Amino acid sequence: MRSSSAGTTDDDESATISDEYDATMETDTDVVSKDGAVESLSTPFRPGEKVLAYHNLRIYEAKVLQVDSKEKRFYIHYLGWKQKWDEWVGIDRLMIINNENLQKQKALENELKPKNPNMTKGMKRKTMSKGTVSYEKLIDIHIPSSLKKHLVNYSEYITHMGKLVKLPCSPNVDDILTLYLEHRSNKDGRESDTAGEVVSGIRCYFDKALPAMLLYKTESQQYQQATANQISPSKIYGAEHLLRLFVKLPEILFHANIEEETLRELQHNLQDFLKFLQKKQSLFFLSSYETPDGSCTIE
Fold it and tell me: The dihedral of CA 222, 111, 117, 252: what is its sign?
């Protein structure tokens, strides 16, 4: 499943947000290009080779099917998955299979296990059976058009104008989530356990997903510098990057294997949060931009 500009579709936005990094490791091999010509490519991976591949927040075993020499990307098949999940990925998504990387895979799985039982209330893993409704039909997060415009604008600033969001942002993601909780409390007349769980879940997904799937390649170095002191991304980044998470959430939640009833409730709560973000966008989307050399502009 794929998630959600004049002229830009939701799928285009999702693909733009998850742009792949350029290749960084080199060795020579011959591959067949799209026009059928055999040419040399500097790459550590060959067609037919088994690899470890990042997908969403996890690492899976995969097999390289094709190599695109011009775009420096790899068409892979996740072992044990249906063919519809085959995809082109950048070299940043792939690792060789060795003991070190297998340990990294195991450590990541352990890290993603819920540490707070309240966050997963009702989110029980269930076996897909004859009576189970396809999650692809259930997960549908609608991003309001006014918020989509921010995604398009930021894509333009970053990919075509060479700018970066100046960090740290104010308000940051933590601030926005806190304000949403206050909003729900005022509206409901009491603190809501459900809203608290949703906010905790958004924060957790954001902190895990940001380095794995929410950054443009030109933002990678900035991220390394901003989080050098082990500060959580939710305390550094703001509404612009938080909005990118909602483009990817349908795909992330698909793999969470949440029960249908709980998923519908979660979907409703996420839409409510987006409405809040839309209503307060003039307060949240106030970022200044900078170029890699440090010069700053305000958009």
Answer: positive
Give the span between the Cα atoms of 271 and 274, in whole angstroms: 5
> Are the C-beta atoms of residues 214 and 17 closer than 8 Å to each other?
yes
Taken in order of first residue, the domains within the chain and their CATH numbers are 22-112 (2.30.30.140), 117-298 (1.10.274.30)
**56 contacts 45 by C-beta, under 8 angstroms:** no
Is-contact 29 46, C-beta < 8 A? yes
Note the pLDDT tens digit of each residue in 124-157: 343 333 333 344 444 678 889 899 888 888 888 8
In Å, how far are 53, 119, 186, 209, 230 from 78, measured between CA atoms? 8, 29, 46, 20, 32
List the one residue out of 111, 119, 140, 261 whose CA is nearest residue 198: 119
Report the C-alpha gap between 210 and 223 in whole angstroms.
9
Q: Are 290 and 281 in contact (CB under 8 A)?
A: no
pTM: 0.57
pLDDT value at residue 130: 36
Helices marked H in 25-130: 99-112
**Residue 274 φ/ψ, nearest 5 degrees:** -65, -35
Residue 124 corresponds to which tokens in the numbers above? 């029980």
C-beta of residue 274 within 8 angstroms of C-beta of residue 151: no
Local structure of residue 156 (DSSP, 8 states): I
**Could you tell me the CA-to-CA distances from 182 to 35, 95, 172 in Å, in that order?**
57, 43, 16
Task: Return the structure tokens found at 197.
Answer: 């769980």
Q: Choose from 44-58, 120-134, 146-160, 222-236 the range with maximum mean pLDDT.
A: 222-236
Q: What is the DSSP string of 103-123?
A: HHHHHHHHHHS-S-GGGGTT-
Please say if the pLDDT value at position 9 is more than 60. no
